[in-house]
Amino acid sequence: MTDEEEAEKHYHSGLPGILGTIDTLISKLEAIILAIGVLLMAVNTIANVVGRFVIGESLFFTGEINRILIIMITFAGIGYAARHGRHIRMSAIYDALPVGGRRALMVAIALFTSIVMFFLAYYAVLYILTLYDRGRVLPALGFPIFIIYVWVPLGFVITGIQYLFTAIKNLTSRDVYLSTSVVDGYKDTETEV
């Protein structure tokens, strides 16, 4: 098992005190949401395939359940990606800067991204309230459609918190961090023969 796989298996926040505890608890919540979502999607899809080929009928609610699970996995996954420094970065200018400049730029990027995430969470809540007012329901399952979008602001808030924590980590550290536990740098991918 590589160091990276071990770190993902047992996440430990790089933040001190209560912030580290909150970060670790959020990471466990994300892991549970992602694991349950992927497992439920697999079970739902397999059940639909079995139903189609064994009974000759598809399960009428499979598409809606998978839609709910995709939304849940996607918006729980953005926080997970931020936590592990897995977002796509454009780094030509960033890489040319000295360590102090990279750290300052990372703080600015993390704070700006955090603000954007909270802004998107606010608008996601407004959208959910609009759906609630309209009273739309899912055709097959029959429950209100606004419920499936609750994951959207939650994912944005968790991601905003993660980027805020990344800015704090960079303000309190000598190294440059992509997240609270991932130090900036490139791994040597060359293999010895």
Automatic annotation (TrEMBL):
Cellular component, GO annotation: plasma membrane
Q: Does the keyword Transferase apply?
A: no
May I ask which residue range the UniProt record assigns to the signal sequence? none
Q: Which family does it belong to?
A: Belongs to the TRAP transporter small permease family.
Q: How does it assemble?
A: The complex comprises the extracytoplasmic solute receptor protein and the two transmembrane proteins.
Q: Indicate the transmembrane segments per the record.
A: 31-53, 65-83, 104-129, 141-165
Q: What does this protein do?
A: Part of the tripartite ATP-independent periplasmic (TRAP) transport system.
Q: Does the record bear Aminoacyl-tRNA synthetase in its keywords?
A: no
Drop me one GO molecular function for this one. transmembrane transporter activity
Pfam families under this entry? DctQ
What is the protein name given in its UniProt record?
TRAP transporter small permease protein
Where can this protein be found? Answer: Cell inner membrane
Its keywords, alphabetically, are: Cell inner membrane, Cell membrane, Membrane, Transmembrane, Transmembrane helix, Transport
